[in-house]
Amino acid sequence: MADALLEVRGLTKRFGGLVASDGIALRVAEGETLAIIGPNGAGKTTLIGQLAGDLRPDAGSIRFAGEDVTALGAAARSHRGLARSFQITSIFRDFTALDNVALAVQAHAGHSFRFWRPARREAALREPARAILERVGLGARADVLGGTLAHGEQRQLEIGMALATRPGRSHQRARLRARDRFRRARDDPRRSRSPPRLSGRGRQGVMRATTPDPCPDPVRSGARCW
User: Per the confidence metrics, is the pTM higher than 0.85?
Assistant: First the structure.
């Protein structure tokens, strides 16, 4: 296997007498897609929360890009390039798709550019935001309000906001994305299409937590199941 972008060893999380994560060990290589499959209550969201830094494990270690990040919080991991999208869609419904991603770009840039200048005129925000929308298949929907997008498009937008992570000077985008349970098309009739396979994913890793479905064909999807 290629060098691991993410490596987990002995990850354990207990809630009282309930063991939600029991000595989990896994690896995700650069450019790999790994699907975490299990029924409701199996601990998928708990695992994703520990990887993203929202939950502190009781035991075990998490290494990301060669660094031990076990003790780091979510913000520090995000700036290193570990991005997360949530099970419940979290977007600004009254802002356009472009504004949503531009806000994410601005947040990770660490400053507000020119204070008295309208943010919508900032090429440093708008240009990368438009490029990200193209990557997630929403280039033609840039000026549509987030709240009026179909559910599937809102999930694509949320992925775009996660991709706006800038993990440091030597990298230009998130290196690993952890998605918590995409809803399938049959779950929501408003969904217009399945999330696209991102163009230009390159060396990014992807983790996807989902309820039981047949594992994707690894030849067609490039995915591995766990």
Answer: no
